[in-house]
Write a structure and sequence with these properties.
By secondary structure, the protein is mainly alpha-helical. It has a domain of 113 residues: lambda repressor-like DNA-binding domains (434 Repressor (Amino-terminal Domain), Orthogonal Bundle), CATH 1.10.260. 54% of the residues lie in helices and 0% in strands. The chain has eight helices and no strands. The protein is globular and about 55 Å long.
Length: 162
Amino acid sequence: MNIMSHPVKATPAKRGSRLSSRGRFADGTANPIDTHVGARVRLRRTLLGLSQEKLGEALGLTFQQVQKYERGANRIGCSRLFDIARVLDVPVSFFFDDMADEVMAASPAAIATGQVTEAPSGLPDAHKRCVVLELTRDYVRLSPEHAAAVRQLAASLAKVAD
């Protein structure tokens, strides 16, 4: 996607305005792009088998800061994202891959100008993949008896959801 193909005229939010100039929604909800990038950090960290603590050590951060980045609660600056990409051995573009159109549309400029007023609903796909990966890693470590119980529980919950 060419960045110039979707020009957004950005005007900063007025002081006291309900519109955010920091990429958040008026209700304080994190920007979906920040949430997506954080979910991709978590996905890659999990794929490599790194704990938040180990990633934090490699970056000179606490695990709590890594946790905030992964949730999208704190925004990741460009230089920090560059460092994260190097530690996780991926190009910076990895963190923006598989971003839904609704998420792309919720840029900070679109929020600041009032073009987007609420966050898209649903979990980001990257977050879902990360949860599935974590569940799979935990599942393979279970005893056969516990694994059978988890399968039965999952099947029962799926029937209730239908």
